[in-house]
Amino acid sequence: MADTPKKRFDYIIVGAGAAGCVLANRLSADPQRSVLLLEAGALSNHWRLRMPMAAMDRLSQSDKFCWKNWTEPEVQLDGRRIYVPSGRVIGGSSSINGMVHIRGNPAEFDRWAEQGCDGWSYQDVLPYFRKSETYHGPPSSLRGIDGPLSVFKTTPVNPLDVAFIDSGVEAGFGLSEDFNGASQEGFGSYDHSIDGGQRVSAATAYLYPAQGRSNLTVISNARAEKLRIESGRAVAVAYQQNSESHWAFAEAEVIVCAGAIWTPHLLQRSGIGHADRLREAGVESTHHLPAVGHGLQNHIDVVLQYACKEPVSILNMTKPWSQIAQGLR
Question: Phi/psi of residue 272, each to 5°?
Answer without folding.
Answer: -105, 115
